[in-house]
Specification:
By secondary structure, the protein is an alpha/beta fold. It is globular, with a radius of gyration of 18 Å. The protein is built from nine helices and ten strands. It has a domain at 11-93 and 170-252: 3-Layer(aba) Sandwich (Rossmann fold), CATH 3.40.50.300. The chain has a six-stranded mixed sheet, sandwiched between helices. The protein has a four-stranded antiparallel sheet with strand order 2-1-4-5, covered by helices on one side.
């Protein structure tokens, strides 16, 4: 399985002026971003900076208070309350991989992967089943198709979470700190799968603290601080020669922990 082949290098994701408040707290402050088809954007920043809220706003899991989000030719203007069908249309373009897996505990690995394509997309059962088995074979988990999530390691559960997202055939993959809940020895397999997806041309927005992954895989890095994109550019610029002192402090702390 591979992403939709782009005929041009046009932007797949456009974010303009996205803002979000929770009560008196301004979580996002007029965020602008643009991601071309086939690009990887790594979003970095301290805990509580607004990274996850930004990611959830991209597919309508959180509804911004203002701004515009477009994925391909589906755009939602949040200056007025969008209709549920508009949010569904936006959500149908993307798939989310969560920090804590969010697998259905009462369903097998295979059932977790096929649930969305069968129930939401109403695709043919035989086709969905075959595609899910091929995805499991790809990551060496075909023998675990009948297992339940509690029978898997954290790394295996997260790879199943990624396969569940791929099974939906999205145009945009969204990752919310996909390795932060894993033991260090389990991180490698998940990052290898993500590297492979990037090499295949999947368009990805990845909230991460894995700076080496961002350096190797991303075309863009956005540093979010107090709800703003404080610095945005290539990995070489943002991670090796940041312009902002706040970015320098953050990158140094991750690369040289106490």
């Amino acid at each position: 399985m591979s992403p939709t082949d782009p005929t041009t290098a046009s932007s797949l994701l456009t974010v303009e002026g996205v803002s979000k408040r929770f009560g008196e707290i301004e979580v996002l402050r007029s965020v602008d971003l643009r991601v071309a088809r086939g690009e990887v954007l790594a979003v970095i920043g301290a805990s509580g900076s607004g990274k996850t809220t930004l990611l959830r706003c991209l597919n309508g899991l959180e509804v911004p208070d203002a701004g515009r989000v477009a994925i391909a030719d589906t755009a939602v203007d949040f200056s007025s309350r969008p209709a549920p069908r508009e949010l569904r249309a936006l959500r149908d373009r993307s798939a989310m991989v969560f920090q804590h897996y969010h697998l259905f505990p009462h369903r097998t690995v295979l059932e977790n992967i096929t649930e969305g394509p069968l129930v939401v997309q109403r695709r043919p059962r035989d086709q969905v089943h075959d595609e899910a088995l091929a995805l499991l074979e790809r990551v060496g988990l075909a023998s675990r198709a009948g297992a339940y999530p509690h029978e898997l390691s954290g790394g295996q559960q997260q790879r199943v979470g990624i396969l569940r997202a791929l099974a939906l055939r999205p145009e945009l993959l969204l990752f919310d700190e996909p390795t932060s809940a894993l033991d260090p020895e389990l991180v490698g397999d998940v990052l290898t799968l993500m590297r492979d997806l990037a090499a295949e041309g999947w368009t990805m927005v990845v909230v991460t603290h894995e700076l080496q992954f961002a350096r190797e895989v991303a075309q863009q890095v956005a540093f979010v601080d107090e709800g703003r994109v404080l610095e945005h550019g290539s990995p070489a610029q943002v991670l090796r020669a940041p312009r902002e002192e706040r970015t320098r402090q953050f990158v140094h702390r991750l690369l040289h922990p106490l």
